[in-house]
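Hello forum,

I keep getting stuck at the same step: I have a sequence, I want structure tokens, and every attempt I make locally crashes halfway through. Rather than fight my setup again tonight, could one of you with a working pipeline run this one for me? It's a single chain of 285 residues.
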Amino acid sequence: MTASHAYRRCEQIVRVRARNFSYGIRLLPAPKRRALSAVYAFARRIDDIGDMDGSADQRLARLSDARAALRAGHPDHDDLVMVALIDAARRYPIPLLAFEELIDGCVADVRGATYESFDDLLAYCRCVAGSVGRLSLGVFGAQDRRTAAPLADALGVALQITNILRDVREDRLAGRVYLPSEDLERFGCTLDVDSSGRFTDPPHRLVRLVRFEADRAREWYERGAELLPMLDRRSAACTAAMAGIYRSLLDRIAARPVQALSVRSSLPAWEKAMVAARALAGAGS
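Reply #2:
Ran it on my machine without issues. Output:
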């Protein structure tokens, strides 16, 4: 199977399964767009294993298989995602070992890990999202990678906190709680749900909790934004578009926390397109 066919498959996966990211990725020149699509397609595969139906043992075994495939470095020709990823890693300095951090984070999910403090949650966020930021940086390129890598990691943390706030109810109904126990205690929340799946905590407490975490995420966005001047124009536009879409989503959640805890928040396609267009225009100024 040719690499071009494998890349097309990855781009298709990104369009369908990573729509928020696709608005940024499409701003890249074709070679980088293909390479980053391969990175995100493999990351999507790992995430899907963590969320799939089946026993914990089955999911852990599949994650071990993904780790072994990553380490082998010689993909099965029928595995189009791995074919594209290995080809991309030959063309760009993509730190493939960072995928093992993502796998570690998914293992924690499968095992039902909870987080006592924000430092505990931060370690998880760096595994599952900071790692993807650093993988993406391998495609973007930066003159000072040692300085840029922590900033890419910070953007990943910001996006992951946003994801956590978007999915609080969905995760809770699946038996997962990501918000730190110390924060729940601070605001007098339990995240218990009634028989209809509604949170039983007083709404004003939930509002304070969500806005506290949103302010925390904004600090990570501000830190991560320092990466943009270190990137070439199109890579900066890609990064700004992805971050901008998630930042807008965060603002929507923070503006209406009670609604966000009842219905999964999302942005309409036109708004995502506008954010991407502004990112491209801003990168050219």
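The radius of gyration is 19 Å. If your local run keeps crashing, start a new thread with the error log.
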